[in-house]
Structure formats: structure tokens, C-alpha cells
Amino acid sequence: MSHTTAAQQTCIVIGASHGGVNVAFSLRKEGWKGRIILIDRDPNYPYHRPPLSKTYLLNERDPQKILLKPVPSYLEQDITLHLGVEVSQIDKEQHVVTLSDGSTLHYDKLVLALGARPIIPPIAGIDTASNLFAVRTLADIDGIRNTIKVIEKPRAVIIGGGYIGLETAASLTKIGVEVTVLEREDRLLARVTTPYMSEFFNTLHSQHGVAIHTGKNVTSINQENSTSWVQCSDGSQYSADVIIVGVGIKVNQELAQEAGLHVDNGIVVDTCARTSDEHIYAVGDCTYHHNPLYDRYVRLESVQNAVDQAKVVAAAITKKQPSYNAIPWFWSDQYDIKLQMVGLSAGHNTIITRHEPDASGHKFSVWYFLNERLLAVDTVNHAKAYVLATKIIKGAIKIDQNTLMDEQVDLTLEHLINANTDS
Predict the structure, then answer these.
(1) How far apart are CA 312 and CA 285, in angstroms?
(2) Could you tell me the sign of the dihedral formed by the alpha carbons of 246, 250, 251, 254, in that order?
(3) Which among 122, 142, 171, 231 could bridge 57 via Cys, Cβ 3.0 to 4.6 Å?
(4) 399-420 pLDDT, tens per residue?
(5) DSSP state letters, 386-416
């Protein structure tokens, strides 16, 4: 194996979403001369996922409009695509992957961009509901649209009040669907944000006509012709023409686990995104990596994380010395609201909420501190606060919390630092 020339080597990438596609193209950019094979179970050309619950659901856009790369670019970069195919086994001793059709491929380097899949909760009748969808693939969204377009006044029940459920609720409401959201916890977004932010989004959706019900544990789904009845443990039930499940995701780590790679809440990787096998790397939602800024291991469900790790992997495979230390950031679009989040708020002991004068009344930021250290910030329609917070977190800059709380003081780094210096 060591006698093969650079041009004879093969890098196989399993998974052709944001992480996998960016690995392939970044490898070419970094000068990889060998073969690149990109494998994915989805039969469609690789596409952007964030628009699925937003513009794609709203506008019935041509799938070509949300492709990650133009179709000819794969040929131009000499990247071989195997679409609609699954990898069933990895033999890391022989450097071979086995496909679902029984064929095998040899690799010199292997990249796992396995992603995650929606959790389908163990609800009675969920397996036989023909009008039930997740929001993960192009096929999911096409299924939702095809179901509602033949109904005059369609009703949707969304199980799960997290970001994906709320984004879908916003989009469906815009196209005239009557939406009900059922959340098991006592507030929306309970696992990821403050009660203040939960209340804000509850009010926002209610104002747009979405029926939000918290503390609802769905126990069964019964179908009568094309209508379903979603039953909860408290006896309440809701009729639906389409049911959407958004209760979280499960990491696709089984393939790595069966191959004997180190797995712990995802595929464990080092700062170069290398797994416990020196010839195998992993990127994206499926990875569990150390974040030096927070000095702990994290698994991030984020497009940006996948793209950043992809660049690191391409550099590492081509013998550079990269190191992944990006600050996590996320976003969500709902109605006229743009939520931008930077950092990780886990472990905070102080929260400061700051409002800015704005005609819509929807411009504010929520700052999470551990003592004097800023950990994370959530911003609503406030790009300036998002950019400022990123700079503060990245530079571990100490700022004055009293000045931050004073909404009469303009939100600038100079003001926040000077007040801290003066004190």
C-alpha cells in the first residue's frame, strides 16, 4: 500500500451532505491527486439542508436551486458519485468498504460524514401512519407538500417544539396550513434556551395563528381514511391531514462502531478530525470532538461545523498540520425573525437580556455568563450583537455586565471594555 503513487491513492467519503461534499472539493483544492469517491444513500444530487424547512417548503422550488454544487462540477473536479447506495461494512484492516449491493471498494483514506437521522418516537400507530414525515430529506419535504396540496384547508400537527418543528410551523402557516404544535416539555425549546426565549417564540407563533400546546405527551396515532387523530396521555386529541415529527436526531454511528472505531456520543475525533484509526476521519453531526475554547467534548448539529471540519480533514489528509478550534454558531429563521446564536451556554450562572429600540419590537439579545466570562449569546434580529459577541467570546474579553444591562448605552465593544477598565 505504501508503494502507491499519489495519483493512485483513493479517498472514499461516506455521506454527501455539507460535510462530505466539502471534504471532496476541499481535497482537490489542497492538491489531492488521487481518486475521490463520494457515496450517499440519498438518490438526489447533494443539496443544502437548511432551506428544506424554509424556502424549499414554501416555494416548491426546483431541487436544482438548492444543490450544494452544480452537477457538472463533480465531473470537472474528477469526483465520482455513488448515489442511492449504502455502505454496509467497513473493514479497516483491509481498507475496504462493502456496499449494500455486495460490491467492495478499496480506500487509502476514508472520511465518515454519516450525519444523523430523525428520532421516530415509540408511539402506537406511528409506523402505519401514511401521512407522517420528518424534516430531514428532500423526499420528506416533497411528501409534505404533495400531501397538503390536494386538501383545501390542510391541518398539520407537529410533534416537537424544537427549532426544526418551529421553522416548519412558520413555513406551513405562511402557505395557509392550520398548524398545531405539541411539545412534551413544559415550554418550547426547553433543552436549548432560556424561559424568556421560549416565551418569546410561543407568543410569536401564537400571534401567527399556530396553536401551541406544551406538556403534551403523544401516546398514539389513529388513521381514518386520509385523516389522522393524534392522541395525548391527558386524553386530548388533534386531527391532522399531515403529521410532522421533530423530536430530535440520532447519530449515525453504528457503521463506525461495528468497524471498531472509538465511539462516545458520536464518532470521537482529534483536532484534525481523525478517528481512532489513522486512515479514517469523520466530520459533521456524527463527530464528538474537543472544543479548546470550552475545554470539553461536544457534538454539534450545525452546517458550519461540518464545513469547518471538512476543510481541516482535507488539509490533514494532504499532510498539512491543521487544527479545528472554531466557535460554534447556529441560526434559525421564523417569519420575520432571524435568530443567531454563538457559543455554548451550558454551565452559565448569569443571564442578561438586553432590548434595543426597533419598530418591530423584536430586536434583543440574551447573554450567558459563567461569573465574568461570556459563554454564549442568542440574538433576535440583531446582527450587530451577534458579531460583537463572537469577538468577545473568541478573544476571551472581559466586559462590564452593568454597562451591558444599561440599554441607554450604545452596544459597542469600546463602551463595554472601557466601563470595565474604569471600574
Answers:
(1) 15
(2) negative
(3) 171
(4) 999 999 999 999 999 989 876 5
(5) HHHHHHHHHTT----HHHHH-TTS---HHHH
Q: d(Cα 274, Cα 121) in Å, to the nearest integer?
A: 32
Q: Look up residue 215 and give its DSSP letter.
A: S
Give yes or no for residue 2 having a pLDDT over 50: no
Task: Give phi and psi for 31, each to the nearest 5.
Answer: 100, 15
The mean pLDDT value of the chain amounts to 94
b/e map 82-102, b = 16+ CB within 10 Å: beebebeebebeebebeeeee
Strand 104-106 to 35-40 pairing: unpaired
Residue 403 CA: distances (Å) to CA of 36, 294, 356, 365, 417? 53, 25, 14, 14, 9
User: The whole model's pTM is what?
Assistant: 0.94
Cell numbers placing 282: 469523520
> How far, CA to CA in Å, does 62 sit from each of 58, 59, 155, 211?
12, 9, 25, 31
Q: Which residue has the cell 420528506?
A: 140
